[in-house]
Amino acid sequence: MYKIISFLQNSSSGKMVLGLFILTNLVYGAIFGYTIPLVLSFAPDSILFDMSPTGYSYNQAIQLLESLGAEGRYAYLTIQIPLDFVYPAMFAASYTLLLVWFFKRCLPVDSKLYLLTLVPVLAGLSDYLENFGIVAMLNNYPTVSEGLVRTTSVFTVAKSGFTTIYFVILLITLIFLIKKLLAKR
């Protein structure tokens, strides 16, 4: 694990972090500005699986799949999901390196706290597992099992939880760095 952390410490240059951050957020912008609104246009009163941080029940999942209709399910599968298979890796790489870059400014290189920089990887893995479940639900509709919905919902909640934990860590790190900068004045 420490070889990975060392590699990340050596790879987190300012230019690389900035470039990945911009690319990641361009993809994020395309998802929220185009693909999600497009899919939601088929079921405007619904919330997509990806956007349900507390998960969803079997009935909610079936209701969404029905509300989307055949065209909406096809748009979800062929427009939203492909872009959402690019985003988790970009999120994991970009936000891991961003946090490593900040940590390098306030922690010794051998600090065990660097393990926290891997939280975005857990969020990305959870997002991929969520996506596989969504694909299975879309492909298997109308015969979607309760177990599939339950499992996919768990990964949706895990993705949201790890993402929230990451941003809390980032916020605490930024506050610490600001205090450190102000103390130098």
Report on the biggest sheet. none
The average pLDDT value, as a whole number, equals 96
- Alpha-carbon distance between the two ends: 37 Å
Number of domains: 1
Rg estimate, integer Å: 19 Å
How many β-strand runs? 0
* Number of helices in the DSSP assignment: 5
Structural class: mainly alpha
Helix content: over 70%
Poorly predicted runs: none
Q: What is the 3D shape?
A: elongated
Helix-strand sequence: HHHHH
DSSP strand content: under 5%
Characterise this structure.
Keywords: Membrane, Transmembrane, Transmembrane helix. It is built from five helices and no strands. The mean pLDDT is 96. It has one domain. The protein is elongated, with a radius of gyration of 19 Å.
Characteristic terms for this protein:
single chain; 185 residues; mainly alpha; 5 helices
Brief account:
This protein is an all-alpha fold and 185 residues long. Helix content is 78%, strand content 0%.
Write the layout of secondary structure elements.
Layout: H1 2-11, H2 14-40, H3 58-103, H4 119-140, H5 146-184
Helix pairs in contact: 1-3, 2-3, 3-4, 3-5, 4-5
